[in-house]
Every structure is written in structure tokens, then in C-alpha cells.
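Ticket opened by: R.M.
Priority: normal
Category: complex prediction / small molecule

The reporter submitted a protein together with glycine and asked that the result be attached to this ticket for the collaborator who will pick it up next week. Submitted input follows.
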Amino acid sequence: MIHRRALLASVAAAGAAVATSRMRAALPLSGGPVILSTWDHGIPANVAAMEALRSGGTALDAAERGVMVTEADVTNRSVGLTGYPDRDGIVTLDACIMDGDGRAGSVCFVQGIKHPVSLARKVMENTPHVMMVGKGAEQYARELGIEQLPNVLPDDVQKAWENWKKESRYQPVINIENHDTIGLLVLDANGRLAGACTTSGLAWKMHGRVGDSPIIGAGLYVDNEVGGATCTGVGEYVLRTLASFLAVERMRMGDTPQQACEEAIRRIKARHADVRNVQVGILALDTHGRHGAASIHDGFTFALHKDGKNQLRKA
Ligand code: GLY
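Result attached by the on-call engineer:
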């Protein structure tokens, strides 16, 4: 027999859910595509994502194409094969991709793969799995005919690593300077969402360390019913709060994307005694095309492509 108090609580919860979905439904869906991505490198990534949509691609195609630009940028030191290595001088990459319909794919701790986001997409589309790691993921890449490149550091990266080794006593550092992951969210003209997130992770990390970026719900989460969110910054702080999932669930409960981002940052600060030297940035985009951005400290930039303009903004 259902207890009366439990019944009243479930009726109240159902009422609140209906009210929340009415609140969301009262707003129109976005008129045109919106693309939102982290940091200054989001600008060229957004251009490629928009081109993918204009040439008939899906939101998922656009998310992948967008972050591929950052992965291929040989001047980038925090995404792709020219990112800073771990403390043993080895570059290991993490990436994920998610469709608003709930499908997701992820790879982490992979070496020598130029486009880990594309491998993550293959995991999502061609396997029964969500996540593949290290040697197994690399073996799967070879089976797909994806070339595995040798671990060769650009000269300046080699020099930076050698300098770090002199001063660091082999201790990994968690700080504000060390992360510029790209996370990118796409809302297409039909109101469908997708996202991607890719990184070389924390510079000088311990070999084997994985951050938030390839973890569905931490670095990225997307739901066609509500919206999407993506994070950048020190992955350990994002992992402990599943900040992207949290932001999407806050939007589901009626928060605007801005409120959802601020709540995720508030939660990170509340869970950690000292965030003076830690940066985390979060972006959110809802099905109405509204966006939000927040960070622990000033300095987090993001790129917004909306209404024909692709602009760099500050959170
Ligand atoms: N957000 C990237 C990382 O912590 O690896």
C-alpha cells in the first residue's frame, strides 16, 4: 500500500515536473543554429562547425568538425598531438562526443591519434561501448585504418618539458595555467543538439592521468530535451562535481543556462576549500538557443556563433 505522505510527495513532484516542462515549452525553439565553444581557439572551431551545418551536416558532424580544427592546430599546446606531454614526455589524449539523443562515445589515454574525437565517434557508432582506453583504443584505431603517429614533441614543447623537469622534482602541478581544453556545443536549426570535447590534458601530469574531458557528464553532457554543457579547466575539480551533467539537470529543473553555469561553479567552490590557483570554466546552451558561461576566476573566454556573428566573449 502506498503511504499517504509518499503519495502526496510524488503528486507534488509530478506537478513540479509538469510546471518545469511548461516553463521550458513556453519559450520558442531557437530560430537558427547556435555554436558555443571554449576559449579563443573556439572562433575557428565554430567556423568549421557552422560550415558543416551549412553543407548539410548534422549537429554531430558539426561538433566533430569544429573540434578537429583545434586538434589539428600545431600551435596549440593543450589539445591534440602538439599539446604538452605528461611528466614522462609522452602526449596522451582524451576526447568525447555526444549526440542529444543520448548516444555517446569516448576515448582516453590514447597516443599518436591525430583526431581522438573521430575515434570517439567510431566507438559510439560502430561498437556497443561508450568508452575505450589506451592500448585497446589504439588497437581499434589501427583496425579502422587510422594511422598512429610517433610521439615527437615540437622543439619548444621539448624545451618546456626539459625546463619543467629541472625545477619540478617530478611533481605534477595542478594550477590555473595548465588547461585550455576545447568543448563545443551545437544547436542546429531543427533544435537538435550535439557536443564534443577534446584535450591533451594537464601539462606534466602523471602518466595515466585522465581528466574530465572524456567523461560523459563531467567534460560534456547533451540532452535534446533540455540543452548541453561543457567544461574546461582543472579536470579533477570538474570530475568531483560532474559539472556538465549538473548544469544540464539544473536547466531541466528550470534554470536558465546562465543560472545553471553559475550553480555548477558555486558547487565546485563549495566542495573545495581552496580554489585560488584553480580555474574551471563552464558553458551551457539550451534548446531555445540561450547560452550561459561562468568560471571560478576572470579570464575564461568563449566563442559564440549566433545570428550570423562569431564573437569572442568573456565569462
Ligand atoms: N580539462 C582538461 C583536463 O583536466 O584534462
